[in-house]
Amino acid sequence: MKLAVLVGSKGRGSNMTALLNACKSGRISASGSLVIAPSENIPAVGNAHDLRADIAIIHPSDPHFGEDLLAILDAERIDLLCLAGYMRLLPKDVVRDFEGRILNIHPALLPKYGGKGMYGMRVHQAVIDAGEKESGCSVHYLTEKYDEGEVLLQMKCPVHPDDTAETLAARVLELEHECYIGAVRKWIRQHIYAGRNASL
Ligand code: GRF
After folding, report:
1. Which protein residue has the closest C-alpha to ligand 1 atom 10?
2. DSSP string covering 64-108, please?
3. Protein fold of 2-198
């Protein structure tokens, strides 16, 4: 099982780092991993270098982005693509060719607080403004629309009365790392080990 993590141009790469570390420690049973990034000059790529990960650079605004991405996934024999801080829609041909094998993480309890324009602090501010008592994160299958695919795993945390978007984001982010690792483990159980009687 080989995993690729696709990060966005503003990505800090904390979810990517959590996933790569889980592959190294064996919590995720992957035989290899690859980071795909839009440029060398983003924090996530620095972290990926530190972790000695393989890195491929392709920019989403390149007209051949979809083809190039599929070519990399094919050449590297990637089983599962995890989006982490990648804020755009993926080209339709990628979503179709890789159906059921692309995951994304969203910092709220979908189906609430998702969709176009719902990213970063906007999500957490919307949760606070609505007076929610709990929030969390969701790992879901990717579709051609923002944040609409089936949820694979969610984790919840409380929203405190004195929370700001920033304090809530920090609490949710900690949860995201565990949730993404748990979701990838679940995906592997369902897709790779299913029927083989393996216990992960
Ligand atoms: C996370 O909050 C994730 O839910 C969202 O983008 C952010 C990426 O953070 N999709 P990081 O780059 O993984 O630290």
Report:
1. 85
2. THHHHHHHHHHHTT-SEEEEES--SPPPHHHHHHTTTSEEEEESS
3. Rossmann fold (3.40.50)
